[in-house]
Design brief:
The complex is a heterodimer of chains A (322) and B (317).
Chain A lengths: L1 H23 L2 E6 L4 E6 L4 E7 L4 E6 L6 E5 L4 E5 L6 E5 L7 E4 L5 E6 L4 E6 L5 E6 L4 E6 L5 E6 L4 E6 L4 E7 L4 E6 L5 E6 L4 E6 L4 E7 L4 E6 L5 E6 L4 E6 L4 E7 L4 E6 L5 E6 L4 E6 L4 E7 L4 E5 L8
Antiparallel strand pairs in A: 1-2, 1-28, 2-3, 4-5, 5-6, 6-7, 8-9, 9-10, 10-11, 12-13, 13-14, 14-15, 16-17, 17-18, 18-19, 20-21, 21-22, 22-23, 24-25, 25-26, 26-27
Chain B lengths: L1 H26 L6 H31 L7 H15 L2 H23 L7 H4 L7 H25 L1 H11 L14 H18 L3 H18 L8 H7 L3 H7 L21 H5 L15 H4 L8 H16 L4
Helix pairs in contact in B: 1-2, 2-9, 4-8, 6-7, 6-8, 7-14
The chains are: A mainly beta (322), B mainly alpha (317).
C-alpha cells in the first residue's frame, strides 16, 4: 500500500513537472507582416508551434513598460493587439490607433508615440490610456522613433525625405529637422544620451548625430542597407542589421566603431538577443525565415520557416535594452 | 503539397529579389522602395508562372477544341496587353498614380479624426480567420465589380474607353486584359477606393486579383464550354461571358448589355441582367459591321480610345 502511494505520488509529481515544462516552454513571437499573422516558435526546440491571425500588416512590437503585455502594432488594421509576452496568447485589442507602424513609450511612460509610415504622421497618445493627444503631419514616410532619457524629445527618422526630426513632447510639435543620408530607418539613443545613431538603409553606414546641436559627428561604415538596432545588454555594445549586404554588425558605443561582423542571409531586419548573449534571433525578411545565430562561433544554428515578410521579433528572456 | 509549392515559390521569390532586384534598386538610389519592389517581384513571378500555365492548359484546349477561327495578329496584340497587366507593369503604374491620391485622402480623414471603417468592425470573427475574411472580400469586391462593369457600359464616356475591350472579334483567353489604360485607371481607382473603405489590406488585394483573373482568362477562352445547368449559376463560364461580348445583344437593351458578372453570375440573376441562352454568338460591337475602326495595334487602339473619349466628352457621340 505504502509502495502504491509512493508510486502515485511519484507519477503525479512527474506529470506536474511535465505539465509545468509545457506551460513554461518559452515562446518566440514573430510578426509575419505580409500575411497578417504571428508565428509562435518553441524557443528551445526552434520549431514553429503555430501561426495565429493577428491583423493587417503587423510590423513592429514592443513590451508595455511594466512588461505585462506585448504590444503588436497592426498598421493596416488601425489597432494594437496586446499579447501575453510569454505565451503569445491574444489578450486585448485597442481600436482606433491610426496606421501604427513603429511605436514607442517615452522613458517616463507619459507618452505613447505611434509612427504612421504610410500616412506621413506622428501620432502622440497618452501613455496611460492610449487616448489621442495630437496628430503631427510630417515629411515623407516616418519610419522609426527613439527618445532622450528625460523624455523631452522624440526623434523620428523620415525614410523618403532623408531627415531626422525632433519632436518636442511637452508641446507635441516639431522642434527641428535635419538632413541625413539616404533612407534613414532605425534610430538608437546612446546610453549617455549624447548621440542618436541612425541606420541609413539607402547607404552602407550608420550616422552618429549630436541631436542637441543637430550636427553629424561621424559615419560608421557597416554594410549596405543599414537598418535597425538592438542593445546587447551590457550598456556598451549594440547590434545593427544590414538588409542588403546580409550582415549584422556589433558597434561599440564608447568608441563608435564596428567591432564584429556576422553574416545573416535573407535581408536581416529586426533582432532579439538571449539574456546570456549566446543566441541572436533575426527575422530574414526576404526568405520567410527566422535565422538563429550562435554568438560565440558567429555561425547559423538554424533557419526556421515562418510566414511572409517576417518583421518584428520578441521573446521574454531577452537581453537588457541598454 | 500546397506548403511545399509555397516554400519553393518563397525560395525563388527571395532569390530573384536579392540577386536581381535589390542590388539594382540600391544602385539606382531607390532603396526606399525595397518592400514595394519585393511585392512587385512577387506579382511578376506569379504572373509569369500563371501566364505559362494558362498558355499550356488553355492554349492546348483552344488549339484542339476551337470555337471559331482566330485572327492571329489580333491575338498577338492581346498577348501584349496580358504581359503588361499580369507581369505587373500596368498595376505598378496604377499604384504610382493612385497611391498618393488614396493615401492623401486617407491621411486627410485621419486628421479629421475619421479612421476608415473596416469589415472586421462589423464581423470581429474575421480577425481570427484569414480564409473567411478572404472569402468575404472576394464576394464584396465581385459585387462592386458587377456594378462598375455596368457603369462601364452605361456611362457614355466610360463606354467610349471600355469599347476597346469589346472590339475583339476573335476572342481568346488572352483577351481579358485588352483594356484602354484610362479604363484601367478608372477601374483600379474605384477598386482601390472601395478596398480602402472596407479595409482590404494591399497584400490581400493582390492575392484576390491574382486568384480571380484565372477565372477571367477562362471566361474569355475560345471554347464551346458551359458549366452545366447548375454550374452556370455558380461561376462565370466561357458561354456566359461570350454572350456578354456578343455582337448585337451583348451591349444593348435597357441595361446596355447582359451578363456583367466577373466571377459570380448570381449578381446578374439578382439584378435581372442574366442571359442563360445556350448560345455561342460572334463577338464584337455592332458598329464594327458598319466599318467603325477600333485599331489593330496597341498604340493605335490606345489613340483611337482617346479620340472616342474626346468625341464623347464633346457630346458628338
Amino acid at each position: 500500500m505504502n509502495f502504491l502511494r509512493k508510486a502515485v505520488v511519484a507519477s503525479l509529481s512527474a506529470a506536474w513537472l511535465f505539465a509545468g515544462a509545457i506551460v513554461h516552454a518559452e515562446v518566440v513571437i514573430v510578426l509575419n507582416s505580409g500575411e497578417g499573422s504571428i508565428s509562435l516558435i518553441d524557443k528551445a526546440k526552434m520549431e514553429e508551434i503555430k501561426r495565429v491571425p493577428i491583423g493587417k500588416e503587423p510590423h513592429h512590437l514592443m513590451a508595455t513598460p511594466d512588461d505585462k503585455f506585448l504590444i503588436v502594432a497592426n498598421a493596416a488594421s488601425n489597432d494594437l493587439v496586446l499579447l501575453d509576452p510569454v505565451t503569445g496568447d491574444i489578450k486585448k485589442r485597442i481600436d482606433k490607433i491610426s496606421d501604427p507602424y513603429q511605436v514607442g513609450f517615452s522613458p517616463d511612460r507619459k507618452w505613447f508615440v505611434s509612427v504612421s509610415n504610410r500616412l506621413d504622421r506622428v501620432d502622440i497618445y497618452n501613455g496611460a490610456d492610449f487616448s489621442l493627444v495630437k496628430r503631427i503631419p510630417t515629411a515623407k514616410v516616418p519610419s522609426h522613433v527613439a527618445f532622450d532619457a528625460k523624455s523631452t524629445m522624440a526623434l523620428v527618422t523620415m525614410q523618403d525625405s532623408d531627415e531626422l526630426v525632433g519632436i518636442d513632447l511637452a508641446t507635441q510639435s516639431v522642434k527641428w529637422r535635419m538632413k541625413t543620408g539616404k533612407m534613414p530607418a532605425g534610430v538608437w539613443m546612446t546610453p549617455d544620451d549624447k548621440y542618436a545613431l541612425v541606420g541609413m538603409t539607402g547607404e552602407d553606414y550608420v550616422e552618429v548625430i549630436d541631436w542637441r546641436t543637430q550636427k553629424l559627428v561621424k559615419k560608421i561604415v557597416t554594410g549596405k542597407g543599414a537598418h535597425n538596432f538592438l542593445a546587447m545588454g551590457d550598456g556598451r555594445r549594440i547590434l545593427v542589421t544590414n538588409r542588403v549586404s546580409n550582415t549584422v554588425n556589433i558597434i561599440d558605443q564608447t568608441t563608435l566603431t564596428v567591432v564584429d561582423t556576422i553574416p545573416v542571409p535573407g535581408g536581416p531586419d529586426c533582432m532579439e538577443l538571449t539574456r546570456d548573449g549566446k543566441q541572436l534571433w533575426v527575422t530574414s525578411r526576404w526568405i520567410k525565415k527566422v535565422t538563429v545565430v550562435d554568438m560565440d562561433s558567429k555561425k547559423i544554428i538554424k533557419q526556421i520557416p515562418v510566414g511572409k515578410s517576417p518583421h518584428g521579433i520578441y521573446f521574454a528572456s531577452h537581453a537588457a535594452r541598454k | 503539397m500546397f506548403e511545399w509549392i509555397a516554400n519553393l515559390f518563397a525560395e525563388l521569390h527571395g532569390h530573384v529579389f536579392q540577386t536581381a532586384v535589390l542590388p539594382l534598386l540600391h544602385a539606382a538610389g531607390y532603396g526606399g522602395y525595397a518592400e514595394l519592389a519585393f511585392d512587385a517581384t512577387e506579382v511578376f513571378l506569379i504572373g509569369a508562372i500563371e501566364i505559362t500555365l494558362l498558355a499550356i492548359v488553355l492554349g492546348a484546349l483552344e488549339r484542339n477544341f476551337p470555337l471559331e477561327q482566330q485572327d492571329e495578329e489580333e491575338k498577338r496584340v492581346d498577348v501584349i496587353y496580358t504581359l503588361l497587366q499580369r507581369l505587373g507593369f500596368v498595376p505598378l503604374l496604377m499604384f504610382a498614380l493612385l497611391t498618393p491620391l488614396i493615401d492623401g485622402f486617407d491621411g486627410w480623414l485621419r486628421m479629421h479624426d475619421v479612421i476608415p471603417w473596416k469589415l472586421e468592425d462589423a464581423l470581429p470573427a474575421l480577425n481570427a480567420s484569414p480564409w473567411l475574411s478572404f472569402a468575404v472580400y472576394v464576394v464584396v469586391l465581385d459585387f462592386v465589380a458587377y456594378w462598375l462593369h455596368r457603369w462601364q457600359h452605361r456611362v457614355t464616356f466610360w463606354w467610349s474607353l471600355h469599347a476597346l475591350h469589346h472590339s475583339q472579334r476573335s476572342m481568346s483567353f488572352w483577351s481579358d486584359d485588352r483594356n484602354h489604360l484610362l479604363d484601367d485607371v478608372l477601374m483600379d481607382g474605384a477598386f482601390a477606393l472601395v478596398a480602402l473603405l472596407i479595409g482590404v489590406p494591399p497584400a490581400q488585394f493582390v492575392t484576390i486579383v491574382v486568384a480571380t483573373r484565372v477565372v477571367e482568362s477562362l471566361s474569355h477562352a475560345n471554347l464551346r464550354l458551359s458549366f452545366g445547368r447548375i454550374g452556370e449559376y455558380l461561376l462565370v463560364s466561357p458561354r456566359f461571358h461570350r454572350v456578354h461580348h456578343a455582337i448585337g445583344f451583348g451591349h444593348e437593351g435597357r441595361a446596355r448589355g447582359c451578363n456583367f458578372a466577373v466571377l459570380f453570375p448570381a449578381w446578374d440573376v439578382l439584378f435581372g441582367t442574366a442571359n442563360m441562352d445556350p448560345v455561342y454568338p460572334k463577338t464584337g460591337i455592332r458598329d464594327q459591321l458598319e466599318g467603325k475602326e477600333y485599331g489593330r495595334g496597341f498604340w493605335q487602339q490606345q489613340w483611337l480610345g482617346l479620340v472616342r473619349l474626346g468625341s464623347s466628352l464633346a457630346g458628338r457621340n
